[in-house]
Amino acid sequence: MTRIVAILAHPDDAEILAGGTLYQHRQRGDSVEICSVTYTPDSVRGQEGAAGAQRLGADFTCLGLPDMGVSRYTPADVERLTAFLLARPPDIVLTHWLEDTHPDHVASARLVIEALVHYAVSHGLEDVDASRRAFPQVWSCDTYGGLGSRGAFDPEWYIDISVIWEQKLHALAAHQSQTPAHWTELIRRHNAFYGARCNRAYAEGFRRLPLAFVNNLPAYDYLP
After folding, report:
1. Helix-strand-coil percent breakdown of the chain, rounded to 5?
2. 215 lies in some domain
3. Predicted TM-score (pTM) of this structure
């Protein structure tokens, strides 16, 4: 069983950017968890995040950082995220692209990188052979519109989500405070564009995150 953890800035980012992939992992029996960097479990958006995750068959947690304030994360926040990873070591981590144009997304990716470095040290993974055995694969999700600060997001990996498309939309609909109809049309066009690239109706796209202990590994086949 593979353990996949999506660590993303906001409670609806997982559904928008990787909902189909996460749901397919759960369908095949993998362990799936969504960690929202912002909001608390008892907030409206935290509750919506828990509902959306439940529709994907995923566990859900929040780190409680402020919306539009992730860049102010502290060493204590890094340690909390490191402890979260150490408690149940993941095989795959999904997070944001470092060239995303949303400041919370970029800051969340940097927070994840810092926590993963601490995670590696805690596991003694400075040793290359150990890192090959135990360090998780780390992948960047798409952006809201496929646009980045230095050009378009160009996926290295496509996940066919055609069969479970409606389940992705069902999970997104849990986020009523965020006007899900707006996001539905945006991701419909975007995921259809990626689907056309691989001769499918809908697909999600990912890039490997450039991080020590990861890029030298052989490609991890995480297709559901």
Report:
1. 45, 20, 35
2. no
3. 0.92
